[in-house]
Amino acid sequence: MGLKQKTADLKKRMREAVKGGGSKAIEKQKAIGKKTARERILSILDPKSFHEYDLFVEHAGRDFDMDKKYLPGDGVITGTGTISGYPVCIYAQDFTVAGGSLGWAHAKKIIKIMDHAMKLKIPIIGINDSGGARIQEGVNALAGYGEIFYRNTQASGVIPQLSVILGPCAGGAVYSPALTDFVFVVENVSKMFITGPEVIKTVLGEDISMEELGGAKVHAEITGNAHFFSESEEECFDQIKHLISFIPWNNEKKAEPFPKKPPKARHYNIDEIIPTDPRQPYDVRDIIKSICDDSEFLEIQEHFAANIVIGFVRIAGQTVGVVANQPLVLAGVLDVDSSDKAARFIRYCDSFNIPLLTLVDLPGYLPGIDQEHAGVIRHGAKVLYAYSEATVPKITVIMRKAYGGGYIAMCSHHLRADFVCAWPTAEIAVMGPEGAANIIFRNEIKAAENPDEMRRQKIKEYKNKFANPYVAAAYGFVDAVIEAKETRNFIVHALEVSSQKKEVGPNKKHGLPPF
Amino acid sequence: MAETNDIQQDLKKGQFKSLLVENIKYKTLLTKKYQDKKPYSPKDNRKIMAFIPGKIVKIYVTINQKVKAGDKLLTLEAMKMMNNILAPLDGTIQQITVKEGDKVTKDKMLIEFR
Fold first, then answer.
1. Where are the alpha helices (DSSP H) in B1-114?
2. Chain B interface includes A333 (CB < 8 A)
3. What integer is the mean pLDDT of B41-58?
4. Are A401 and A423 in contact (CB under 8 A)?
5. What was the ipTM of the complex prediction?
6. pLDDT for res B1
7. d(CA A175, CA A160)
């Protein structure tokens, strides 16, 4: 064969391989509103930036006549590329090839691109669309999953790991996404569960649809397994690109800075958002937008435990992770789910050198038998642990209520916040005035001719004396009491002076966070 | 200030619920999970419930039979395991709400003591 023929032969081989499962299987994929694996990769990456690896890998099945089958690329596409110029490794399972099932060669391709991402110190994006283990390959399929889980764990906190669920992801396969940093789901496309509706039907006789059991909404709202929810694959890809722009390539770098931009003050006026009555709600996301560059806020886990808000903003061009109590939902209390949500995000930011901004307005922990029995003690402790352990610059703004344990947990000075400011509307106290007055003045209230009148009077007394930022300021527990409109300046300055912050804790293998 | 105005309007319309934390009533929205939570009921050890979903393969007792704590009541097959369910106390069987071959969900009542 001459060069021309050899080139033609290469092209032919490539044409065959990129067809995936063939036109019939592709039609099926499209009929249920799904893109193909290759289309997905090309939609996420910059045009012409995708470089594929291991296109000609052949599957390793030798039993049950599998050796006679040809599975192009063994059902997974892997490679490198860029997103807005940022380098990433990427893989996408191809459902059109043997249902995207995971055999040994399929797993080896994923393992190889994961190892590559670790060596190159760049993020890895995994697109999951697979029927699960390739049963014909037996324990080799399990070995494949195990090797992936091990690498997910090793890569955790070193390179960003994104999991995109664009099809079924069931059984053991769910544990790779669960070990990664961010999980993306799309309505009617994503399905995640350990045991599917069929098993549940056989064992329990209970009927439930895939969507109700482990659809996108379920994981975005109820389980908290997903971090980004969207209604279409296109919207999901935009979310991925948006997220990649906010986070650093690895744990030794800072996020790439952007040009500074002021907030959109016309839409978000910080002085007009918060009602002074601490019992009245408002949307804390408006406060976030009134502070950050271009009022651009990328919210994470928007629909899960909405009583706490987390996400990324830029302030003076620098990526900052925000944790904010949300008075609009459940009065902004800490509970099992919101503690879990906040704590994990705090640890993410700390791993990847992203400064933390905490906006405080909470009445405390949610009372209830269900909360106590669900372990609000150990889950709530996660927030304390995560904040105490974090060594990135920590900035805290106490806007209104900061009562009791909630005050301590929300990145107080005692957990080593570097900068704490409070607004004149702040109420920093051991508990709400009503509760405190009832305890402290119990005898006076009881003995009074008109107990209700006395109670009201004592509450008022307590409020005047303690429901303000000045008692805490007098002890130096807040560094400054500032006008709300000075908040952005306060944060910009804090970021400027803390850019060289380095803190080293005691030597240990690792701590024991209350998992 | 569009969003803030919406909240003020919702407040007037009474869209917000009250949540009591330490004697203070807050106006706020509730999550679906919070609204759907089941009220607490204390455990009654006279009622034997399925601790795991599975299949009743054998029932060893009959109604009105007297049993001693530790006696075998029934076998519940679940997760490829034959689980023997034993009497938690001395007593008399008042009712048996399953029969052999039944599939049961978790927390389904199986046997009640008098």
1. 2-13, 32-36
2. yes
3. 92
4. no
5. 0.79
6. 47
7. 16
Q: What is the pTM of this model?
A: 0.93
Q: For residue B37, which phi and psi values (nearest 5 degrees)?
A: -65, 145
Segment among A40-49, A273-282, A387-396, A418-427 with least mean pLDDT: A273-282
Please spell the DSSP secondary structure of A447-465, one letter per residue.
Answer: HSSSHHHHHHHHHHHHHHH
- Is the predicted pLDDT of residue A295 greater than 60, yes or no? yes
A179: three-class secondary structure by DSSP:
helix
What integer pLDDT is reported at residue B33 of this predicted model? 87
Q: Verify whether the Cβ–Cβ distance B40 to A370 is below 8 Å.
A: yes
* Cβ neighbours around A148 below 10 Å, total: 21
Pure H helices in A357-441: 369-373, 376-389, 404-409, 433-440
Asked whether the beta carbons of residue A281 and residue B105 sit closer than 8 angstroms, the reply is: no
**Cα distance between residue A155 and residue A118, in whole Å:** 7
Q: CB distance A204–B37 less than 8 Å?
A: no
Instruction: Provide the token pair at A143.
Output: 């070995």
Q: Residues A330, A300: contact at Cβ < 8 Å?
A: no
Contact A91, A76 (CB under 8 A): yes
Q: Is residue B94's pLDDT more than 60?
A: yes
Contact A204 B24 (CB under 8 A): no
Q: Is A459 on the interface with B (CB under 8 A)?
A: no
pLDDT value of position B4:
59
- Per residue in A443-470, pLDDT (tens digit) is 999 999 999 999 999 999 999 999 999 9
Average pLDDT, chain A: 95
Query: Can you point out the beta strands (E) in A51-123?
Result: 51-53, 76-83, 86-93
Nearest chain B residue (CA) to A328: B28
Q: Is B26 on the interface with A (CB under 8 A)?
A: yes
What does the CA dihedral A124, A127, A308, A490 come to, rounded to 10 degrees? 30
- Chain B contact present for A331, CB below 8 A: yes
Least CB–CB distance from B1: residue in A205, A269, A305: A269
- Asked whether the beta carbons of A169 and A190 are under 8 A apart, the reply is yes
Task: Report all structural domains of chain B as residue ranges with CATH numbers, in order of start.
Answer: 2-36 (no CATH), 47-113 (2.40.50.100)
Q: Which residues of A touch B37 (CB under 8 A)?
A: 368, 370
Q: Which residues have a Cβ under 8 Å from the Cβ of A370 and sit 6 or more positions away?
A: B37, B38, B40
- Residue A504: what are its φ and ψ, rounded to 5°? -120, 125
Which range (A7-11, A266-270, A285-289) has the least confidence?
A266-270
Domains of chain A: 3-246 (3.90.226.10), 270-431+468-497 (3.90.226.10), 433-466 (no CATH)
Asked whether the beta carbons of residue B22 and residue A403 sit closer than 8 angstroms, the reply is yes
Candidate from B1, B28, B54 with C-beta closest to A328 = B28
Q: How many residues does chain B have?
A: 114
